Amino acid sequence: MAPPMFRELCLLLALPILARGQVGDLPITTSNATALLPTFSLPELPYSYDALEPSISKEIMTLHHSKHHQAYVTNLNAALSTSIDSLTRGDLVGYSSQLSAIRFNGGGHINHALFWQNLSPPSSSDSSPDAAPKLQVALEATWGSLEDFQKDFTTALLGIQGSGWGWLVREKGTGLLRILTLANQEAVVQGDTPILGVDMWEHAYYLQYLNGKAAYVQNIWKVINWTTCEARYVGETEDVFADLRSVIG
């Protein structure tokens, strides 16, 4: 069963309530239905804005987190509120018109929350691949070496056309590792366990690297939080999203 991130964002939050036609003993109204929706908030970073320098500048981190990520959160909350308002009025067209905004901004919120957690100051022991011994064994079994994995992952990242994300995931069912890329703000919510994600939107690097995204990718390897990657690899998919839910809502 896929992690219920988007169901929580729309279906589980709205449709079961509306199907009953009431909230407790009260008939459904916009005000009491909206009151049951969560208000998502911007998670605090586990490090300061300048902690990832020189790989990622303080200026980029400040804008990326406080402006871009905040915009996804703000727009997600607005789309959820509008959708529940439409449903309580029986306006299926109005509700449907918000689904793409919920998917896009919800994905942006999920992706960034995962991304911040898999970064670490370069001076931290978390930034050493030695912090992920079991994952290293699996990477070597799949790609031959950590270096060969990094080369393939880098190639996948640089091959993204336009905006998107690159992910190392553990496949549901097989447990095998694979690299995938997703366009725009599509989120890894279909059963695979996200282990490592890299943001390839221009706002993640342009102020510092201009159009030199290859240099951005080269340097981001210096600030990967391998401790987080190890925990995601050895844990269950539900654990990753349970941790995520504790910081995004």
UniProtKB/TrEMBL annotation:
Residues 134-231 form the Manganese/iron superoxide dismutase C-terminal domain. Keywords: Manganese, Metal-binding, Mitochondrion, Oxidoreductase, Signal, Transit peptide. It holds the Pfam family Sod_Fe_N. InterPro entries: Fe/Mn_Superoxide_Dismutase (IPR050265), Mn/Fe_SOD (IPR001189), Mn/Fe_SOD_BS (IPR019833), Mn/Fe_SOD_C (IPR019832), Mn/Fe_SOD_N (IPR019831), Mn/Fe_SOD_N_sf (IPR036324), SOD_C_sf (IPR036314). Coiled coil: none annotated. Its cofactor is Mn(2+). Residues 1-21 form the signal peptide. Its main location: mitochondrion. Residues 39-120 form the Manganese/iron superoxide dismutase N-terminal domain. The keyword Methyltransferase does not apply. It comes from the Eukaryota. It is found in: Mitochondrion matrix. The keyword Transcription does not apply. Belongs to the iron/manganese superoxide dismutase family. Homotetramer. This is Superoxide dismutase. It comes from Phialemonium thermophilum.
